[in-house]
Amino acid sequence: MTSTRPDPTLQSLLNSHPNLSYEGSKGLVMEGTPLADLARQHGTPCWVISADTLRRRARALKDAFEAKNLPVHCHFAVKAQDHQACLTVLAQCGFGADVVSGGELRRALAAGIRAQDIVFSGIGKTDEELELAIHHQIGQINVESVEELHRLDALARKLERRARIAFRVNPDIDAQTHSKITTGRAEDKFGIAHDTVPALYRKTQTDMTGVELIGLAVHLGSQMVTEAPFRRGYERIASLVRTLRADGLHVSDIDCGGGLGIAYRDEKAPPPSMLAEVIAETLGDLNVQLHVEPGRWLAAPSGVLLARVIDVKEAARRFVIIDAGMNELVRPAMYDSWHGILPLHTPEDTTAGDVVDVVGPICESSDIFARQRRLPSLKKGDLVALLDAGAYGTVMSSTYNSRPLAAQIMIDGDRQAVIRRRQTLDELLAQEAVPDWLAHP
Ligand SMILES: Cc1ncc(COP(=O)(O)O)c(C=O)c1O
Ligand SMILES: N[C@@H](CCCC[NH3+])C(=O)O
Predict the structure, then answer these.
(1) Which CATH number characterizes residue 186's domain?
(2) What region holds the Orn/DAP/Arg decarboxylase 2 N-terminal domain (predicted)?
(3) Do 275 and 342 fall within a single domain?
(4) How confident is the model over 300-318, as pLDDT tens digits?
(5) First vs last Cα of the chain: how many Å apart?
(6) Which residues form the domain of 24?
(7) Cβ < 6 Å from ligand 2: which residues?
(8) Residue 148 forms part of a structural domain
(9) pTM, 2 dp
């Protein structure tokens, strides 16, 4: 957000978001549904997610692998968007799940995703979470360390089960993305150092009876928009597989992780065909079952956050104060990330407008969605959409400043449903208890 790169024009934002268009008096329409109608009906702030966009992107991802003749199991990264309705849509598209907690595991199962189609990643899995995964005999647990390996082996033996596992490899490769969402450098907390994998792999396959080690997993980071780190990462995995096999060890599965980025602003985000091509070229001849774990690419463009302008404050800058805050969408505050903002009414002139700061109501200067951005003129009461909010939006929201969680609406063709009710303040307060000894001293 602090960059001096010119902002994309409204027209180029619309071009890069084919599920959004202006239709005269209906204003901004998402997959046939006028967003202003939803905002008026359900109040703001509120999240909207399109089942059609999710399905289309799920299909496009699968098509990219099919075009390369690559049989790849796709597991949606639940952390990006964990709503049961979204998981149901993706399960119906043939997706399994990548989960990182017992909670996400329960969600995936509740949405009808088969245990065998679930991969459990996550740097700090508790004994209880591992036992849950063992109990349900999920497809694969990605082991993050030698310490976790021993814990898992012991737990599985205690439960008289054999857990299917892969080693998450830390390949020491920079994903060329935001430092806070980079996971594959040696200094990052994730995975098992690549040079220690062969010895540990041998020991595990020869000595451990609680686990069945089926292969390797790698995930370099998120919002990756260049090809080189994917290629380097997968080449490293391919070379490890060759080393392991030369040593007589068995490798049947490779999990390529997630990370494929999108164009929030003007990024030259590569399409899934790039990922398919890189995987085909680096891992395609290894005769293994391949897996991917995409999150953002599927969900982000499928959702928007709707908000209303509370006031336009004229000060050193013109501040457009909206009723959504960093407690809803924390990405700009957390990663300085850029999200497109479009008015819900059709602008008279898409090229004109005012240079403004769009800010939320939270008492933090980091609660800012756009800095010195030219937007069509906005006044008190106008409605806006924050784009690409379908991933890492609802899932990262909080009740900071005692703001109840916002509602979430799913649109699907001409149908729509409130898939998450707006939390009430009473519900928020009801979660808290003042001990008797304090209330009545
Ligand atoms: C292990 C793992 N898999 C998959 C993902 C999904 O990443 P993305 O949403 O960037 O596709 C993440 C998040 O970065 C992750 O940590
Ligand atoms: N929360 C991050 C992505 C993290 C990916 C998790 N491994 C974002 O909003 O961009």
Answers:
(1) 3.20.20.10
(2) 53-300
(3) no
(4) 999 999 999 999 999 999 9
(5) 51
(6) 10-50+300-430
(7) 79, 181, 222-223, 331, 335, 392
(8) yes
(9) 0.97
